[in-house]
Amino acid sequence: MYLEEPSNSFIRDENDIKIKDLEKKIPLIGIPWDWSTGGRPGARFSPQEIRKELYSLRSDVYKIREIKYGFKDLGNVKVVPGDVDGTSHRIISVAEKAFSEYTPTVFLGGDHSITKNILIGLINFYKKIGLIVFDAHYDLREVNEGLTSGSWLNELLKSYKEKFEVIQIGISDYSNPPYMKKIADKFGIKVFYRDQISEGFDIIFNEIKMIKEKTDGLYISIDMDHLDQSFAPGVNSPTALGMYPDETIKIIKEIVKNVNLLGLDVTEIAPPFDLNNMTSRLAAKLILYTLNYYIGNKNE
Q: Which end of the chain has a smaller Cβ tally under 10 Å, C or N?
């Protein structure tokens, strides 16, 4: 019979090897939680959208040795809808187990609050962790009541400041309460604003070099709203005059050079507000660039 597996493509090319066809080695975990978002909802739907884009891409990339591995998809954390404590415990447990077996591990959010619990699952394995966050926002809020993904870094550093050296990249003008600068200074966070990136990369690269020397490994957290809304319209809080993807890729290339990469997450994509899935597709490529620069250039 003239039957085949369902597909979105009618191209039948047996030599067209995609990410989904490679040896399944790099662990991938989805965390469909977005009850903490103060912006547009919908990040709970993003793990599946990012997966769809990841698995449709190929492994070749210009000027980098072709990556040999695909994703060992471990599924999604079973979130408890509306229950932050129950879900946090599950994220920490899953992350702890993943980090005990694999590095780097890739996590697909979800709103940015998931990063706090992922990192709590990591802290017992290393003395000092370098945390590099791409974000338009400090995420250092002090709220009187309720939940917000805009407070996760404040909460993490209040409890575990001695475990982390933190760099924030892409903080946007007119997008943050002024008091957060003082909190960032108190925690010793090195902040690079969007306009500083436009002026050149040397200062950022020097800080990245220093954080590598101080820590046992680096973890990268990519909040997709650090990118300009023309590139990433489908996020919880779109950013006007945000970073360009080529700037992010250039910085990532420097981050993963000669480093122990512990993990990576991508957060804050809201598929219901996306345009033709372009934000999830961009996230998929950022993940692959990170892994290609890290794994593809290693002598393995």
A: N
